[in-house]
User: What shape does this take?
Amino acid sequence: MTPQKTLTGKAWAALVLLALIWGASFLSIRVALNEIAPLTSVAHRTFWAMIALWAVVLSLRLPLPRGLHVWGAFVIMGLLNNAVPFSLMAWGQLHIETGLTSILNAATAVFGVLVAALFFADEKLSPRKMIGVGLGFLGVMTAIGLENLRNFDLRSIAQLAILGGTVSYALAGVWARKTLAGLAPQVAAAGMLTGSSIFTVPLALIVDGPISFDLQPVTILAVAYYALIATAGAYLLYYYILGLAGSGNLMLVTLLIAPVAIILGALVLDEQLNPNAYAGFALLAAGLIILDGRLWQRFRKRKAVAAD
Assistant: This one.
């Protein structure tokens, strides 16, 4: 088992910055949706981020992938990690608050653990992981609210769409591990966004019609933010933190995103969440902390010392 890296001051700063960037992306997407349709917003996101990342790849003179199997993997990855979750979550945000969207998005880590356990022998569900997953699901159910599941109205469908996006993210993690290992992170991200743009741009044209650039300045700024900063830039920062602090520490960003999105939603959009959303996030956060494992290990060490 690979030991977990220590979080340095530099790693913490990068982690907080990534949380701020991704937390604000929920607000920028919702602002853009006031003027453009969900599929068009996703097409903007994948296309402009793709252009930006290929520019980075070319400027760094990184070797370009040539095999058809690699490009096929990019297409599947683009569907699972971009086209499907971005579309489901953009549509879902039309009907629920940005803060609640970010809370449900935190379930990505929970589904990631479950999906990894299904596909990889070295990712089996330990008792600690089962407790964390159980708390995570309890948190999701609490955030959604049993009354919404009973009513099954547009709001509850939107919340299930968000969760569908998190499952797609989890499947993307498995696909990336199986097919994209060994590629430079910048190339993998650019290729993935190319694969997703193959679907998102034509689909937006078919469903939403011609893409207009005659937009309000606030919409243009929102699109530029979530495409160039919260997608292209965030991917580069994500991989930087991964190398600096490791995947275990990187999962902590999931705990930091939702508070940022909730605060921005309240300040800018005057959103007010139901108390059960906060209770759900608290349970989700507890589950993620247990999945992270550090507090669990400290508890076991103290228990062993006390027994001695």
Remarks:
- Residues 35 and 219 are 7 Å apart (CA to CA).
- The chain has a mean pLDDT of 88.
